[in-house]
Automatic annotation (TrEMBL):
PROSITE patterns: NLPC_P60
Signal peptide: 1-20
InterPro entries hit by this protein: Murein_DD/LD_carboxypeptidase (IPR052062), NLP_P60_dom (IPR000064), Papain-like_cys_pep_sf (IPR038765)
All residue ranges annotated as the NlpC/P60 domain in the record: 52-174
UniProt cross-references to PANTHER family, sorted A to Z: ENDOPEPTIDASE NLPC-RELATED (PTHR47360:SF1), MUREIN DD-ENDOPEPTIDASE MEPS/MUREIN LD-CARBOXYPEPTIDASE (PTHR47360)
Name of the protein in its database record: Glycoside hydrolase
Species: Pedobacter lusitanus
One GO biological process term: proteolysis
Length: 184
């Protein structure tokens, strides 16, 4: 009788241990999944709500570039400028080719006020100039990703005094601009 009880208890203990091991493996795999890492980074560290409607490919791409240094005219992880960063996002995430500089890219958009921006739209700035000098990609909740000349690839808030002062307009790529590039 005692042997049967001990044997049953041993079987139950082994089953619980195996179940715990499976759960931990799933949790570890979930934590190591690049998509999940990007989502956690943006949700917890940056305060951006990444949910089922979010473009995970966009967030994963940005996550992989965070911290890349700024380099005027650069377009690699050794150094990149704001328009090259935006161009790379549109190429890899949205399968859309953009022109090379922020002023030319602005010619491809339907201008929008800040309150109409959606995830993936573009944000344009006139920093100490009468011309557009900076570009980023809108993520939602007033946050945008960009290659900052002083901090490299970062996430910033449009409500920060610096960006609020120099914000020009938002924009959404026109379908006609996409078609024009394809035909060239």
């Amino acid at each position: 009788m005692i042997k049967k009880f001990l044997f049953s208890a041993l079987i139950a203990l082994c089953s619980v241990t195996a179940l715990n091991a499976q759960t931990k493996t799933k949790e570890t795999n979930k934590l190591e999944d690049p998509d999940n890492l990007a989502s956690q980074y943006f949700s917890q560290v940056m305060g951006i709500a990444v949910d089922a409607t979010s473009n995970v490919k966009l967030y994963k791409f940005i996550y992989e570039w965070i911290g890349t240094p700024y380099r005027f005219g650069g377009n690699t992880k050794k150094g990149i400028d704001c328009s090259a960063f935006t161009k790379a996002i549109y190429d890899k995430v949205f399968n859309t080719t953009l022109l090379r500089n922020s002023r030319d890219i602005f010619s491809m958009v339907d201008p929008l006020p800040k309150d109409e921006l959606k995830e993936g739209d573009l944000v344009f700035f006139k920093i100490r100039s009468t011309r557009i000098t900076h570009i980023g990609i809108y993520l939602g909740d007033n946050r945008f990703a960009h290659a900052s000349s002083s901090r490299g690839v970062v996430i910033s808030n449009l409500n920060e005094p610096y960006y609020s002062r120099f914000f020009y307009k938002g924009g959404r790529i026109l379908e006609s601009a996409k078609k024009d590039l394809i035909e060239e």
